[in-house]
Structures are given as C-alpha cells and as structure tokens.
Amino acid sequence: MVREIKKILILFLFFYILVLFETIISPFFPLLFLFVILINLFEAPQGKMGIFSALIGGFFLEVFSQKFFGFYCLILICISFFIKMIIKRVIELPSFLK
Amino acid sequence: MKEKIFCLFLLVFVFVFLNFFSVKIKNFFYYFSSPFQSTILETKNFLANFFYTFTKKKHLIEENEKLKKQIYQLMVDKERLYQLERENEILKKALKIQSQNSFEFFSSQFVSKIFDSPDKILIKGGKRDGIKKGDPVITPEKVLVGRVEETFENFSLVSLISQKDFAFVGKVLNKEKIQGVVKGKGNGKVLLEKIPLFDNLKEGDVIITSILGGIFPEGLLVGEVKKIEKSDLEPFQKAQISPFFKKEKLNYLFVIIKW
C-alpha cells in the first residue's frame, strides 16, 4: 500500500513538472498523453497505475486548458481501459508481465 | 461490483466538486506554478538566444545594418515629432484643450500558453489588480497583443488578436482613410478584410487600431501587411497581416485598465 502511494506521488510530481514544461515549450505536442499511453502499455493488465496516471494526467491538462474538469480525465481513462482490454484479449504477454 | 459503483460515484462527485470551484483551483495552481514557469521561460529564452547567435550570424549582421538605417530615420522622425509636440502643446494651451492621452496601465508578465488553444495565453494580474474582461493587452512597445477574456483572482486569460473570430477595426498608418476589419483566423494568422478595391493598400503598410467600435484605443500597433489578395469578383480586397509581436518572445506586458 505504502509502495503504491509512493508511486502515485512520484507520478503526480513527474506529471506536474511535465505539464509545466509543456505549457512553456510546446503545449501542442501531447507528451502527457504519450506517457499515459506508455504506462498503460507496459503495465500488467491487472495493474492500477495506468488508471491513476490517466486521472492525474487528465487533471493537470484540465488545469492548464479551458476545458471543464473531467474532460481529459474521461478521455484518458477510456484510452487506458481500451489499451488494457486489447492487451488482455488480443496480445499474448511475456511471462514477466503476467 | 459494489466497489466499482462506489468508485464511479466518487469520481463523479470529485469532478462536480472540481468544476464548482474551478476558478479557485485553477488560480491556486497558476499561483503556485508561476515562479517555476518563469524560471523555465527565462532558461528557454536564454538558450534560444544563445543558439540563435551561432546559427544566424550572417542574418544578424544584415539585420544589424538594416536596423542602423532605421535608427537614423527614426532619429530624424523623433526630432520632427518633438517639434510637432511642442507646437501642439502651445496650440492646446491657446485653445484651452486638455490632453486626452491618459491610459492607466497594469504591468504584467507572460506566464504560460494554454493547452488546446494556440491563440490564448495566461498573464499575471487578475481581478485583485483591477483587470477586467475586455481590457486591451499590449507590449512595452505599444504593440497590441490581445484582449482579456477571463479573469481569475491573480491571473488573466488573454485572447490574442489571432484568435479565431476576434475582430476589430484597424486602419493604415499615414493613410488613415484606409480602414478595414482586422480578423483573427487562428494559429497565429491575422487578416485585414473589407478594404474597398480602389483603396491603395500596399505590402509593408503598417496597421494600427482605430477607436471605431470602441474595442481598443486609437493608435496601437497591430502588424504589417504581408500579402494582398484581390479578386475582380469581390467588392473588397483582403490582406494577410504579420503581427508585430511574436508569441514565443512575449515576456513583459501591459494591461490597459483605463482609457
């Protein structure tokens, strides 16, 4: 449990720094989207970190955009579930990820 | 199953709560983040200038020569303006007219760009500083940047003049009879429209704001005419404008609170 909370806090901090860089350097390259997708792709299908990353990433995108709270979160959560579903049903996972 | 339904309800509740206090939450994050963003911006500008010096050395020499010539011309113009100003003051005194040029500014600074809106920026200064929706935003060189669209407690969201459907009346400097509508087209593009075909508009003409419409004060610099589009089938000509400000180089700004 403590390990999970630690991971979430690190993710929160990492996404916050990422979003700050993005708002100054390139707000139109979806770096945050990319990271959320990558976390979901490389995580075990039972893992919950992908969903947390979608929530945290979505939250920061909403803070620094004009969309209402929930817009990007919902999009990212849908993407996360979709990736997990595809991985569960279609792709044969290597043993270390199972 | 019950756990999942509970999580869903909790999520919906959190989103409703966040939207209810969205202005305050956003203001808090902007307030907390602005020092970090300033540091990132300064570092980025420093690095960009550093590499620009190396890569565009030849271009810089040419630009330097061109600017030197412009400085001499401006010195002559300045002297002429000084004489005119003095003459103007004397005439105003004789006619007992008071000066009308009394803007009230708030000194602000660029904070960040906005996701999903390439033609909007966030600046320092908000409701607490007397900034309100619709206030014009300019650079220290009196170049028009845009208009305040939304105000938070300590920050304001600014629509740039290139924002889609942003429109105001503009006119050509030194050819004040030529007036048209300056319209934002999104992604940094600005057009000057509704100029009659017979008006002698040229590439390189400088566009300034007009008091007509009451959106902006008179005489703020807007941009330079880049390309003119004429068609015999249409009663008006259009011109592409290159705005004088560069979004990537925005730093210190002024909000005109009273004009």
What would your notes on this structure say?
The complex is a heterodimer of chains A (98) and B (259). With 98 residues, chain A is mostly helical. Chain A has one domain (2-92). Chain A has helices at 2-24, 31-42, 49-63, 71-89. In chain A, helix 1 (2-24) runs parallel beside helix 3, helix 2 packs parallel to helix 4 (71-89) and helix 3 runs antiparallel to helix 4. Chain A starts with a helix and ends in a 9-residue tail after the last helix. With 259 residues, chain B is α+β, with helices and mostly antiparallel strands. In chain B, the strands form 2 sheets. In chain B, strands 1-2-5-4-3-12 form a 6-stranded antiparallel beta barrel. In chain B, strand 6 and strand 7 (175-186) form a beta hairpin. Chain B is globular. The model of chain B has no long low-confidence stretch (mean pLDDT 87). At the A-B interface, helix 1 and helix 3 of A face helix 1, helix 2, strand 1 and strand 2 of B.
Give the SSE string of chain B: HHHEEEEEEEEEEEE
Helix content of chain A: over 70%
**Arithmetic mean pLDDT of chain A:** 85
Uncertain runs of chain B are none
How many H/I helices of chain A?
A: 4
Provide the β-strand percentage band of chain B: 25-35%
Radius of gyration of chain B: 23 Å
Helix % of chain B is 25-40%
Distance between the termini of chain A: 20 Å
Q: What is the average per-residue confidence, as pLDDT of chain B, rounded to a whole number?
A: 87
Task: Give the overall silhouette of chain B.
Answer: globular
- Oligomer class: heterodimer
Q: Can you give keywords for this protein?
A:
heterodimer, A: 98 residues, mainly alpha, globular, B: 259 residues, alpha+beta, six-stranded antiparallel β-barrel, six-stranded antiparallel barrel
